[in-house]
Amino acid sequence: MERKTSRDWRYLDSEADRRALIEDIRRVRLAVVTLARAVPPDQQALPRYHGWSLGAMLAHLHLSDSLALLQIKVALIGVHPAFSLKLLNRFNGTTTRWFQKRVVATTIRQIESGEARIADFILRLPMDGFSRPLYYTAGETELTAERAVQAYFLHHWQEHLTTMQKVEGMFYEPPNMGRV
Where are the beta strands (DSSP E) in the chain? Predict the structure, then answer.
């Protein structure tokens, strides 16, 4: 059980279940991109979200996707490294500084092109790999691969979208998912 937050989880047993998750992922990413496009260019490199610029936030989300995909893939073959929350926070702080002036339009294109890769992975995720464990550092807990795809590609994005919306004065209604 995750210690820091309570989440809605779903089973991904059928193609319909997986496609529903992919649609939720697409929806939250579209909300992030729509919000990002509404931020004036002269404000995109300014600290806005707990000290992160829009460019840094989007680059963080895109980089997190890539690292999460790698982590889940290696978990499926039985390798599950664990990193401390302190190390994760240090990594995020460093990359935030690197990406502070990141070009938003470039990162949006990368996010949009990466979405198909994530969807394909979710559709091809073998059911016999669902229960493979991996350590989810942000929640300081062990998750199954089935839950990790949801934590990384949907819940993580929802959390950051909420942060962004508070600053921008917008609202997003997360999808209604049944608890697992």
Answer: 133-136, 141-144
User: Residue 122: left if φ>0, alpha if ψ -120 to 50, beta else—which one?
Assistant: alpha
- The CATH number of whichever domain residue 29 belongs to comes to 1.20.120.450
The whole domain housing 123 covers 15-168
Which pLDDT does position 63 carry in this prediction? Answer: 96
Residue 2 backbone class (left: φ over 0; alpha: ψ -120 to 50; beta: rest) = beta
∠ CA 25-29-165, nearest 5°, is 120
Residue 13: Cβ within 10 Å count? 11
Contacts for 121 with CB less than 8 Å, ≥ 6 apart: 69, 72, 73, 149
Number of domains in the chain: 1
Structure pTM?
Answer: 0.88
Q: In 3-state terms, what secondary structure has residue 117?
A: helix
Mean of pLDDT values over 148-172: 91
Among the listed residues 26, 1, 11, the one whose alpha carbon sits nearest the alpha carbon of residue 154: 26
Does residue 25 contact residue 178 with C-beta atoms inside 8 Å? Answer: no
